[in-house]
Design brief:
The structure is a homodimer.
Chain A: H1 8-23, H2 29-35, H3 40-52, E1 56-59, E2 64-67, H4 69-82, H5 85-99, E3 102-109, E4 112-119, E5 134-136, H6 141-148, H7 152-161, H8 175-188, E6 191-194, E7 201-209, E8 215-224, H9 230-234, H10 237-253
Antiparallel strand pairs in A: 1-2, 3-4, 3-8, 4-5, 6-7, 7-8
The structure holds a DNA duplex.
Chain lengths: 267, 267
DNA sequence: CATAATGGTTTCATTATTTGAAACTTGGTT
DNA sequence: AACCAAGTTTCAAATAATGAAACCATTATG
């Protein structure tokens, strides 16, 4: 009797929620059933419950389910309280203004890169990545620099579980190559994305480390091969370093004001 | 035996999640216990489960809980699939560029205004920074115009449940005043925020209606009394109207491509 | 037009999980 | 040392989840 799900009923319901989100589009009950380990009535009741709880939304027209708006509300709270974003915001603003290129702020969530903030360059290069979006760690600048400074055990387990997918001719495709790259990043203190995820897209990334060396997140400046090159991006290393330091300091000094009873907006 | 919670165990767990989010800051177990209808061990296990599921994050240092990062991931999916935001994005971009003022895109969620996108006047930040925030419907431009075009029954129930809170000298403070205002909005087709929520902050708001007259959302252009006045904002009505129409059209024509098997980024 | 198939919904006896009063542990205070 | 508060675990009783089967409503199919 292998425990696949864990955490009882609530865990299972959340698994269903993840399933729906993973589809990336409104999904029918039967489609969900195909991919679900649960029997029909069980899954049915989960979807009912989640819908009634606004965690899913139901389109009666097309008979489809999608992640619900309650999540957006909750996520706002999460974003403000459990991410670096609010602390980093002024620093990211300043960085963005100084470099005039797209800037990303990311954190590591499990083995994945979670983008938690972004500033578009003046002319918006629309591409993959927005706050809340996740991506693989091994082929993004921010992912690699965060991984590089993780605990060796974490690195091992991430690499072990990672299925390497080749996005471009430059994608790092083997555990060995990734380990080399990580060593390289540790040696320099920062890293690059050399068109490893999208052709023509390059970036320079800097980890945000606590005083004890723990990885808090990462920053990156992204551009295109048409506008600049790796050497050009490397010029941003000092300001990135400085910004990362500022964020790290603020993060460690920061704590929520202990007293205040906020004027609630809840009804 | 009044059923307060509904939806069994999952509903209760989500109630706890809301509680944590409502605090707006990291919260101790005992604080939560004070405000919770659940007995100690029950609440304890819920918090454990939610934490293990990454819906809450736990800070062992301070012994506090906060909404977890998994929510940010899930919310991204919700934002993309269950809101107007992705459809409206290009139109909101264009509007923002044209007017050079702060632009909001909102939807109605229960009786509350849910901001789902925003363009700041100065730097084009698009994202959760503000998206996900909720506010009362009766004293925001977007809230009023959405309410105005809702079903009369909905209006009644919202007004009935609304507890009016006076934010500024201009805040609409009575059901009667609100009904007058809504009638006025229906007559004109658009509405204003006359410093009703924050002193010095004014806006003009336009509902986004489907062909059948259903409320899909609302747009607003916000400014300050220092920079302009209501007459100045009214000049934006034509472009707001046009933008709202475009969004409405796109929303009704749009449906997810039925076929495609998206190249998954999941590990 | 009947019939089958598909996708969705409900029933109900069985089973497993949740529940919470009470007891216990831990770390800090007088 | 005794006390206290916050957090954690126990365990029998109460409750909710489970899923095989049956049912219903549409939409294909012969």
């Amino acid at each position: 009797m292998a425990r696949v799900t864990g955490d009882g009923t609530v865990g299972k319901a959340l698994e269903v929620l993840d399933q729906v989100a993973a589809f990336g589009r409104p999904v029918r009950f039967s489609e969900l059933l195909d991919k679900s380990p649960f029997p029909k009535p069980t899954l049915y009741r989960f979807v009912q419950t989640l819908t009634s709880q606004q965690m899913l939304s139901y389109d009666p027209e097309r008979q489809t389910y999608a992640p619900g708006v309650r999540l957006v509300r909750l996520a706002h709270a999460a974003w403000e309280q459990s991410t670096l974003a609010p602390i980093a915001r002024p620093h990211v603003d300043a960085l963005s203004k100084a470099v005039g290129e797209t800037v990303h702020l990311a954190q590591l969530d499990h083995a994945q890169v979670l983008y938690i903030d972004k500033r578009n360059a003046g002319n918006p290069v629309q591409m993959y990545s927005q706050a809340g979006k996740v991506g693989p760690a091994y082929c993004t600048g921010v992912g690699k620099v965060m991984l590089a400074f993780c605990d060796p055990k974490v690195i091992d387990s991430v690499i072990e579980q990672q299925s390497f997918h080749v996005f471009t001719p430059h994608t790092i495709a083997t555990p060995a190559a990734l380990r080399d790259e990580l060593a390289d990043i540790r040696a320099h203190g920062y890293g690059f994305d050399r068109e490893e995820h999208e052709p023509g897209i390059i970036c320079v990334a800097m980890p945000i480390l606590s005083d004890t060396g723990r990885v808090l997140g990462a920053l990156s400046v992204t551009s295109t091969t048409r506008r600049t090159n790796l050497a050009g991006l490397e010029a941003y290393v000092p300001i990135l370093q400085e910004t990362a330091n500022h964020i790290s300091q603020d993060a460690q000094n920061w704590s929520f004001p202990d007293y205040e009873t906020p004027e609630a907006t809840r009804i």
